[in-house]
Amino acid sequence: MMLFQFFLILLMLIGAIAVYVFKSLINAVVAMALVSLIASILFYFLQAPDVAMAEASVGAALTTAIFVIAIRKTRKREDKE
Amino acid sequence: MRRIIGIILLIIIAFGVILMLEKIPFGTPKTRVGKYYIGNGIRETGAPNIVTSVVINYRGFDTLGEVTVLFIAALGVGAAFATVEKKVDKKMIEPASLILSTGCRFLFPFILLLGTYIFVHGHLTPGGGFQGGAIIASAFLLIYLGCRGRRVNERKAKTAESLGGLIFVITGLLGLIFGGYFLLNFLPKGTIRTLFSAGIIPIINVAIGFKVGSELATIIDNMLEESE
Fold it and tell me: How many CB atoms lie within 10 A of CB B67?
């Protein structure tokens, strides 16, 4: 179980770095949703099911949807510096 | 050049955070109030779920503040999108495939039921008003994505939201009348671990569930309405 949690944290770090690296904003939002989803699983392992529920529904579902709608209305890609 | 400066700053900040966290042992209770809640929470509030009893009963006023913040956010989104003429974008109403739209319509009542279950049983099982409301809002999001053209009834959503807020505040004020302070648990505690127990906690949970669900659904609804 400990190994599984290490794997999840590693995946979460990769997701967090991917948010920074991706130039396509939609991909970045999906990576952010991944970070949120793994955070909710980790909350569950840390015996905080209330927080896990809130994180999964708000962080992974609704925030992602709102970001996707906002990106759809503005620009698809990040500008170069 | 900017990247290098950014990375150096990040390393400095990370070093500071690590130094700070090193002092705190992981998982040990730092305050006495947490121990008090775990020891006396069930007896004093009648709710087996300690988190809900803290959120609704011991710190109910803070929850009212949180709900108000969410209300202001929904109001802000509504105000930002209210100036444009409301109409549904034509290119958004591509009919979804039969499987998708049927599946969404089939799943919608079950997700609503799950959200309702979570906030009604907030004092017994994990979850509460916020979680249940967010799940209900995600059901509406599913309908928006799967069955294009279906909209939430804005007037009914606003009514549900206002009713939720009113019930919360009125229950708090009743506590002020009966006992002397806002959000006092004036109802009988009942038998622990049954649905109708824990005094005002289920009532406030249902109120928060309705309020949060309709607010988040309204935010999504406002954002999906295409501007000209």
Answer: 24
Q: Which residues of B touch A (CB under 8 A)?
A: 2, 49, 51-52, 118, 126-128, 130-131, 134-135, 137-138, 141, 145, 216, 219-220, 223-224, 226-227
Structural domain tally of chain B? 1
Contact A39, A60 (CB under 8 A): no
Q: Is the dihedral of CA B55, A57, A14, A27 positive or negative?
A: negative
DSSP H or E run through B16: helix B2-22
Would you say the ipTM is above 0.90? no
Q: B82: buried, middle or exposed (CB in 10 Å: 19+, 13-18, 0-12)?
A: exposed
Range of the domain at B80: 2-224
Q: Is residue A77 helix, strand or coil?
A: strand
pTM, 2 dp: 0.82
- Amino acid identity at A50: D
Q: pLDDT for B1-31, tens place per residue? A: 888 999 999 999 999 999 988 888 777 777 7
Distance, in Å, from the CA atom of B2 to the CA atom of B49, rounded to the nearest integer, reads 49
